[in-house]
Amino acid sequence: MLIWFLPLFLAILMIGTPVVFALLFAPGFMTWVTGNERDLAILYRNVYTGIDSFPLMALPFFMLAGEIMNRGGITTRLVEFSQAFMGHLRGGLAQVNILSSILFAGLSGSAVADTSALGSTLIPAMEKNGYTRKFAAAITAASSVIGPIIPPSGIMIIYAYVMGESVAALFLAGIVPGVLVGVGLMVMVRLMADRYDLPKAERIVTKNQSISTVESVLSFILLRINLMGVFWAVFRLGSSVAGVARPEGTMLWGTLAILLVLAHFFLIWMRGQVSSDFRIVCKKAVAPLQTPIIILGGILIGVMTPTEASTIAVAYALLISVFVLKSLTWADFFDVLQRSALASAAVLLLVGAAVAFKTIVATSGAATTMADIILGLSENPLILLFLINILLFIVGMFLDAGPAIIILGPILGPIFTDLGVHPVHFAIIMSVNLTVGLATPPMGLVLFVASTVAREKVETIARAILPFLAVEILVIFLITYFPQISMTVPYLADFLGCPPDTGYMACISPAPPAN
């Protein structure tokens, strides 16, 4: 009888009850009806224990770092940087919109923040440049879903915590899918450029740029270190292919010194190829763009956990915004803390309720019943993955990504793990699918945010966004049926937990466990 909490939960949800209350009331009521008062006490105790977690602390810290960066005027710098690189293309401002979303994703990890921050800047600019308002709002909403895919990602932290997966593995697995969504949208814009006569553009570089001495020196150093890192990654890859042992000790430091010198002379050569204003625009984007590098770099080399990386991201965001850029005052900072605290409280309460909900899912037999129903549809994992993608897409039309992951993750995850789908791979399938749902009619949250920013009807934006949604759906199926897309990066970084003698395909796509 306890299993009836699921239909009750759906009924309560459909009448407009907030998700967090539906998550607690439905299983609590059925537990009380069945006379399991002890389980009822455990249920509500799990709300606190679900929040009381060190790894989960990464969530509010990443939200705070993104809020600091956004309030510190970083958005304008990213847009100017994107315009300098892509504004000259046909449909240039649309391409700038997408590139800005990719760059902004590494700072905020939020689709709503992306739509609000970039939309308020780019939608009026696109309209002034000759784009229709509905098209500008549609491309802003469509590209904003990249935010929760490219790390840091709030929904991946939630999934990792609820399902017991590695946050670092999910972060790394989201890099290529996020970039793939962005590239797909860029290709679609280029295909639409001639057919719909999208405005032509010239390379947009803000004139008479200025930069402080401190920021100029900081950018000078960081650019060379970043380029040295790129050269080192290429060197490591070439050494692995050639079967050459990587340098250690004195040889390692000597190699890094040589690569640093090469990076310096390469940048000196590049300096002569561009204008002074273009160089300054690029320099002003260097410091903000270090945030994802610090987060991922620290995790990859093993000097910090994702939670520790989130606190470093906050410290770096404060350092850059207050002391280097001087674009954030301490008075602004208290408002930033308030907004971040309210947003974090809402998410953490939802996570706590989800952990309690997961307890009832485990004890009621609902997961087993759902598994029997799904496996009864077909024995072919490829067909089942197709059907689950359709289900997740429909769910994403009506439910935000966070609550959907919390509700469906504990039910669907074990089913597909038993079918031979790697847990990290399924996490990415689910996360990307439900994230795209944020821009999907009729209830996609970013559609309403874009509608507010653009002062355009949601129905109008929903029609204009359809070609871009088609691209994102195609990417979802590519991710689903080609695990190499999302799993290669965490495999190369050794974050999948496979034994050393496990082959590549056996690791990223394991065989189903024997019955």
Q: Would you give an account of this structure?
A:
Helix content is 76%, strand content 0%. It is globular and about 75 Å long. It has 515 residues and is mainly α. The longest helix is centred in the last third of the chain and has 35 residues, at 330-364. The protein contains 26 helices and no strands. It has a domain at 209-274. It has helices spanning 5-14, 19-33, 37-51, 58-71, 74-86, 92-108, 111-128, 133-144, 154-163, 167-173, 175-195, 213-242, 250-271, 276-286, 290-300, 306-324, 330-364, 366-377, 381-398, 401-418, 423-436, 445-454, 458-464, 466-481, 484-492, 504-508.
Question: Which properties best describe this structure?
Answer:
mainly alpha, 26 helices, 515 residues, globular
- Beta fraction: under 5%
Order of helices and strands: HHHHHHHHHHHHHHHHHHHHHHHHHH
Question: Which class best fits the helix and strand makeup?
Answer: mainly alpha
Residue windows where pLDDT falls under 50 for at least 5 positions: none
Number of strands: 0
How many separate helices? 26
- Quick one: overall form? globular
User: What is the percent of helical residues?
Assistant: over 70%
What's the N-to-C terminus distance? Answer: 29 Å
Radius of gyration: 24 Å
What integer is the average pLDDT? 82
The biggest beta sheet is recorded as: none
Subcellular location: Cell inner membrane
Organism: Pseudooctadecabacter jejudonensis
Function: Part of the tripartite ATP-independent periplasmic (TRAP) transport system.
InterPro entries: DctM, TRAP_DctM
